[in-house]
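Hi U.,

Before I forget, here's the chain from the pilot set. I'm dumping it here mostly so it's searchable later in email.
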Amino acid sequence: MSQSSLFLSSPQGAPSRGVRCLSQLVLLVAVAMVLSGCGYALVGKASNIPEDIRKVYVEPMENRTSRSQVEQILTQSIVDEMVTRRRFEVINEEGDADAVLKGTVVDFQVRPVAFDSGGLATDYEIQITTDMLFQRPPRDGEVEGEVIWKNARYLFREDYPLEEGDAGYFDRENLAIEETASGFAETLVTDLLEGF
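Structure:
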């Protein structure tokens, strides 16, 4: 008996091994197709922002912390992220905007969480809490424009490992802020677009 006839032969009434393998393959392909259509591919593409909002003014953030320049770094990172996404045109004049993004840094903490044998920090946790508001500018005598998205306690937390040989706590903190700001901006703009 040839190998191919052995492969396809089976007891009376039982499906052959070849048919079972083919059935399993079809089932796997069907499951893969169903999973690919679950919406996970839409992350970052869906938007709860009305389509007519194209021009956005990013107001310089306010800083209510004792850490200087953090608001400037975060504002610039948000602008850069919005430009990268190409969903909005970031403009320089609030009066020409379809919407305005405002924010206040209400808390900023940098904590060392890991140390080397000499007692120097090798890993920091950075925590940024902001009050964020995305709204249309006031029109026709309105005092406040329509609020599109807001989060009064927007919390961002990230670990930041340091390169060996970086000198001085303050220098390390500045570097950590600059590096973390892009992660903050990416998360914020994603949450803004998806309405979280």
